[in-house]
Design goal:
The structure is a homodimer of 128-residue chains. By secondary structure, the first copy, chain A, is mainly alpha-helical. Chain A contains 5 helices and 2 strands; from the N terminus they run H-H-E-E-H-H-H. Chain A has helices at 7-14, 18-26, 43-57, 62-72, 79-123, and strands at residues 33-35, 38-40. A two-stranded antiparallel sheet of chain A has the order 1-2. In chain A, a hairpin with a 2-residue loop joins strand 1 and strand 2. In chain A, helix 3 crosses helix 4. The termini of chain A are far apart. At the A-B interface, helix 3, helix 4 and helix 5 of A face helix 3, helix 4 and helix 5 of B. The structure holds a DNA duplex (30 and 30 nucleotides).
DNA sequence: CAAATAATTGACTTTTACGTAAACGCCGTG
DNA sequence: CACGGCGTTTACGTAAAAGTCAATTATTTG
């Protein structure tokens, strides 16, 4: 496990630009270390970027991703806070379950569309 | 099954604005009938809107949703077109499978975060 | 029939998530 | 040492996906 990654290493790994990574830092999603002015990304930062990319692929906004990331952090020390966090976790889980339903339905419809295409090919006498 | 829905009925049902529905029409995602200038949404339009909302929740862009919607339509008559459509279906399926992996991982992490919170509550002596 | 209600179009604005460009710092190499 | 390559900041620009507002036109209803 590497100590630090440079910004360009991460841009290559995740297929994003330096601008994007700096933007995520501005948004408070990541907090890489500094040596002088240059950023040093720790493995933990890299994990965060991975989580950000996952969130993006799922269509979450930056602020939603921020919320989700905060849930992975050390749980807070106060009871009220903890209960709030549990509620928000449950909420996000609801979002994800909805997405899963959407996903399964869309997949099913794609299957159906594919079948129609295959049937049509058979009608046309194409040997698949 | 109703013959037609008004635009406001659909806005209420899907929690979107009239502007949004007109926008989708401008984008060529739906094609409601007209009586004079007022739009008449058929059940099939309603189904389309439902598919659009699903796509949106999954983070697909309008043009991706347009592509997906086109796959549900009557398959084209020409062999080349059919094969292209099959390829695009397979591609979208790939996207969806990636989303599903992302989703399961995020759900797992939320489970983990929840457990941490619950443990912390127990430490604090809170009877859940 | 007048007033309220609902719908339309068109123009302009906003928000999100970056892209792009300018101008500069630091560092190793030929 | 100057040059290329990588990195930085600051500032402005932009595309997508609507939201907002104004002016206008039906439609319904008391």
């Amino acid at each position: 496990m590497r100590d630090y990654y440079t910004i360009t290493e991460l841009t290559r790994e995740f297929g994003i630009s330096t601008r994007t990574l700096r933007f995520y830092e501005d948004e408070g999603l990541i907090h890489p270390l500094r040596r002088g002015r240059t950023r040093l990304f720790r493995p933990s930062d890299r994990v965060l970027v991975r989580q950000i990319m996952r969130g993006k692929r799922l269509g979450f906004s930056i602020s939603e991703i921020r919320q989700i990331i905060q849930m992975y952090k050390e749980p807070p020390g106060e009871v009220g806070q903890l209960k709030m966090m549990l509620a928000r976790i449950e909420e996000k889980r609801g979002d994800l379950r909805q997405k899963r339903r959407d996903l399964e339905e869309t997949l099913a419809e794609l299957d159906h569309a594919e079948e129609s295409c295959l049937e049509r090919l058979v009608e046309l006498g194409v040997t698949t």
